[in-house]
Write a structure and sequence with these properties.
alpha+beta, Rossmann fold, 4 domains, seven-stranded antiparallel β-sheet
Length: about 700
């Protein structure tokens, strides 16, 4: 068996070396060695440089949003509210729609739409924004008309921002009255039931920008009187409140009747981060609640105040706002003592009360609780009221920010932009949103703290990662980003989609995948902790890396370099693998020499790499990377921006590998048909992304197409 194996191995080796020409290639590289510079990569310096570039790119996005906020606040200051305002605006559902007499319908004038590569080839209008309204908001409500009329002032700013920074994508203003102004304007399509359910006020970016981080205890009455419809409304209310919470908030839910019980016994006496997994877990438990017994609210309130106080004193939780949400159909007993003991006089915890059902007997008591604890009282008698009434608490929580005019800049975790265009699911891109609140500056209402809405813009993470190009990181090297909650924004092992039949769908928790799930070798969480704290540093680990879609595994030692991106909650990590990954070859080749070899027919460049920036100027979009590089070198397109270091490496590789073509061609000519059938093709790739190939058989005979 051994001699068979040796013979087989020897035979295979000689065929492969002969037809691939690997020995010739080694010799060619050896010949140029004296003229080469070999440079060691300094990982820390690299990660700091990338982080600075990312920071300045993100700063440009923030500046664009700041200009919009300023314009919106000034427009509001100069706008007099007019309840009988008549105003025709572009409604994104009705644009370009005609009635039976072939006239445009009201609010639906002609709106020119053209496909634009920069916006995933959607049909857009880059001179105007248009307005989207959820189906449950009346499109000619005076509040809407005034808000839309006032926010017309944003159009020129949208256009100007886009001209100043062509890497900007969607820019928008979500109003607290419910309309959503989106630039560039698009045609919005309803779902199969003819409904538009997108409400900007429920989106993560809106809620995060409108309020600060919060610790919330939801207290729900499950006594016998809550049976039936009231219980259904109460459950829906809790779920709606949970949907307004995000990774920066902390929550727990207490149900009370004769005694107090935490609906998740494991979370007894604590608050948990309101991330996706915990919210979904709570929703399942809320669904199982049963109404029975007699309600005693005092113990539940006492318990809630205790938890909030412990967290506040220990410096845990959101360290910002604290609130209790009381959901009940009436409170009878004497609860003043509880507030006196735990919340007065500083009233550090706000109490919001939701009175469920049509009964009004207990309304004064329930209202008293809210009004004496800096809260807000609403009565919810039908399921349809839930959404609007729950949203009210956000305005109360945002009031201090409004009065002080704290414009906090918010960065959301990564999410897919398909939510925006559920109607036209395009290639799914991971985005992060930068958002800022817009406040009313009018003197007479300054103390009321009126939030007008939120301005935001999307940043595709792909654009950020272009600033940390693969070729600078060597073989097996990569860059990744994560947030201060430990979640990944972007990582080569983050696989957010799964296949259902033929369709690709996002996995339910794709935006809360923890760093420890992809860098699982970091058992002690040293890397994770340092990155969450925004430290700058270095660490090395032995890792196993799957290649070829998981068919094989490599054992490598990787060096991790990380730092924070200042002005954002993000951290950047760069990974270099020991050995090949730590060095860069710099060859010096003249343009004339290299160009001649680049023009050979069987040569190509990695098209997903960026040698030249072709996606900003419309004239360059049709060029492939190879065409762009050639035009750059010949000087045909003087305004092309290219990465000179990478182009230099490509020229060097083109010259060194040029003799391979002749070698392969000679072999192909001398091949007799039968002698060594089975060799079909030879190819090579270099670390600058250059590829060459040669066929040994007619293209129709290739077995693997």
């Amino acid at each position: 068996v051994k001699s068979w194996a040796d013979a087989f191995g020897g035979e295979l080796y000689s065929i492969v070396t002969k037809y691939s020409g690997s020995l010739l290639l080694q010799k060619k590289y050896k010949d140029v060695e004296p003229t080469l510079k070999i440079k060691e990569v300094d990982g820390l310096e690299l990660v700091k440089k990338f982080s600075e570039q990312m920071e300045s790119m993100l700063r440009r996005k923030v500046e664009a949003v700041e200009r919009l906020v300023e314009a919106a606040e000034d427009a509001d200051l100069n706008h007099e509210y007019n309840s009988s305002l008549q105003f025709d605006y572009y409604n994104s559902l009705l644009i370009n729609e005609k009635d039976e007499n072939d006239n445009y319908v009201e609010l639906g004038d002609e709106f020119i739409l053209e496909p634009n590569e920069h916006f995933n080839n959607l049909l857009v209008n880059t001179t105007y924004s248009d307005i989207q309204l959820p189906t449950n908001v009346y499109n000619k409500d005076p509040d809407i008309l005034n808000g839309v009329y006032m926010s017309e002032a944003l159009n020129p700013i949208f256009v100007d921002n886009f001209e100043r920074d062509p890497t900007l994508t969607w820019q928008y203003f979500g109003s607290s009255t419910g309309f959503f102004r989106l630039y560039p304007g698009i045609k919005w399509l309803p779902d199969e039931n003819g409904v538009i359910s997108f409400d900007c006020r429920n989106r993560g970016w809106y809620i995060q920008a409108a309020t600060s981080p919060k610790d919330i205890v939801i207290v729900v009455d499950v006594s016998g009187s809550m049976k039936g419809l009231r219980m259904t409304i109460a459950k829906h209310t809790i779920i709606t409140i949970l949907d307004t919470l995000g990774e920066n908030d902390f929550v727990n839910i207490i149900a009370y009747n004769d005694y107090v019980h935490f609906i998740e016994p494991c979370f007894k006496g604590i608050l948990v981060q309101a991330d996706r997994d915990n919210r979904e877990h709570f929703k399942q438990l809320v669904d199982e609640l049963q109404a029975k017994g007699v309600g005693t609210v005092n113990k539940a309130l006492t318990e809630s105040f205790k938890i909030l106080r412990e967290f506040r004193d220990a410096g845990q939780g959101g360290l910002c706002n604290q609130a209790i949400m009381l959901i009940t159909d009436g409170a009878v007993e004497d609860y003043e003592a509880v507030f006196e003991k735990y919340n007065w006089p500083d009233r550090k915890v706000r109490v919001f009360t939701y009175l469920i059902g049509r009964e009004v007997t207990f309304a004064p008591n329930v209202k008293w609780i809210a009004c004496n604890n800096k809260g807000y009282y609403t009565q919810i008698s039908t399921l349809a009221d839930v959404q609007e009434n729950v949203m009210e608490y956000l305005h109360v929580l945002s009031r201090p920010m409004v009065i002080n005019h704290d414009h906090d800049i918010i960065w959301t975790e990564a999410y897919m932009d398909s939510a925006l265009f559920a109607s036209q699911a395009q290639s799914l891109l991971l985005m992060t949103t930068v958002a800022m609140p817009v406040f009313s500056k009018k003197n007479e209402t300054r103390s009321h703290g009126i939030l007008l809405g939120v301005v935001g813009s999307d940043v595709p993470l792909r654009e950020l990662l272009k600033l940390a190009p693969r070729y600078k990181l060597g073989v097996h090297g990569y860059a990744f980003l994560n947030t201060n909650n430990g979640y990944i924004l972007s990582h080569p092992d983050l696989r957010p989609l799964y296949k259902e039949g033929k369709k690709l769908k996002p996995k339910p928790n794709y935006n809360s995948v923890d760093l420890s799930e992809v860098e699982w070798e970091d058992q002690e969480e040293i890397l994770r902790t340092a990155m969450i704290n925004g430290e700058t540093g270095y660490l090395s680990m032995d890792v196993k890396v799957p290649v070829d879609k998981g068919k094989r595994v490599l054992f490598l030692t990787n060096d991790y370099f990380f730092t924070d991106i200042s002005g954002t909650p993000f951290s950047l990590g760069v990974v270099l693998s020991r050995g090949h990954g730590e060095y860069i070859l710099l060859g010096n080749t003249s343009v004339e020499e290299g160009l001649h070899d680049l023009l050979q027919p069987d040569l190509s460049l990695a098209n997903e790499w960026i040698y030249c920036i072709t996606d900003i100027d419309p004239d360059h979009r049709k060029l492939s990377q190879l065409e762009a590089v050639i035009r750059f070198l010949t000087g045909e397109e003087p305004d092309l921006e290219c990465d000179e270091e990478l182009v230099q490496e490509v020229l060097f590789d083109a010259v060194v590998t040029a003799p391979m073509e002749a070698y392969w061609t000679t072999l192909a000519l001398n091949m007799s048909m039968e002698a060594e059938s089975g060799v079909e093709m030879a190819f090579l790739g270099t670390r600058a992304g250059l590829m060459r190939s040669a066929l040994y058989v007619g293209s129709e005979k290739i077995s693997n197409r």
